[in-house]
Amino acid sequence: LTLAVQSAAFQPAQLGLGNVALNPRLSTSNLKSYSLEDDDEGYEIRGLSDANRPETTFGAENVPVEQRPSNEYLNLIRQPTFGWASQESGDSGLAVRLAIIYAAFFGLVCYPISGATWVNEGYLLQKLTASNVGAISVVFLLVLRLYSGWGYIGSRLKSKVIEYEETGWYDGDIEEKSESEKARDLFLYRSNVQPVEDRLKKFCLAVGGTWVASCIALNVATSINPLFNQYDPSMLEKLSYDDKVAEVVQKQSNGRPTYCESRYYRAVANGGQGC
Predict the structure, then answer these.
(1) Rounded to an integer, what distance in angstroms lies between the CA atom of residue 182 and that of residue 25?
(2) What b-and-e string marks burial along 99-115, b requiring 16 or more CB atoms within 10 Å of the CB?
(3) How confident is the model at residue 44 (pLDDT cuts 50, 70, 90)?
(4) Which of 5, 202, 232, 240 has minimal CB crowding within 10 Å?
(5) Are the beta carbons of 164 and 172 closer than 8 angstroms?
(6) Is 72 exposed, middle or buried (0-12, 13-18, 19+ CB in 10 A)?
């Protein structure tokens, strides 16, 4: 079983390893994978010969292998993005990965969309704030997804019973964990899962606060418009009776129709006649 023992009071027998000795000074990267079977209690430990981390570990025979909490944990850390929040990555590792996701979505997706929305000069602030909201929303959803996944595994490891489905939702059952399973799962939760949950809570609060601030900034930015806002229908209506505003717009347009800079109004004007 590929686990580092961090407490001297935690004995190998609690893991169901029999005479297998665990050195508390060893890390998970130095331990070997073992393969043991206990026919009497229905426990099994399986490891990969070419990897340090096992694919499955022991558990009650009645519970399908893939539904045992410890195996669900091992499967979780092999999934894309979920390993970003692991102990090995730390706060800095997770922050760097999220920053890369933010920068990629901001530059490659969100800003081009914002640029196609505000096509005139003078709308740079609106473009930046809109792109920021889009990119930070993706990061926020990703962090929430990570937290929900790790939180689910944590609740399964802490529980004294295992809820499982034999073949489908209609034949679910509950199996009480043995003392060995309880000790193993609680140790696994406290050493590997709980620190990740605490880290993701901090990131959820930080990214969530940033998202709220970004939405407020976008709302403020969209309320700041040039004197002639071609996207505001009330301004266009005002041009029909306010000569002073019409004169200012005429100077700004350099003799061209005011709809020339808007793709929407060019389409309304049959393709932008006069532009």
Answers:
(1) 23
(2) eebbeebbeeebbeebe
(3) very low
(4) 240
(5) yes
(6) middle
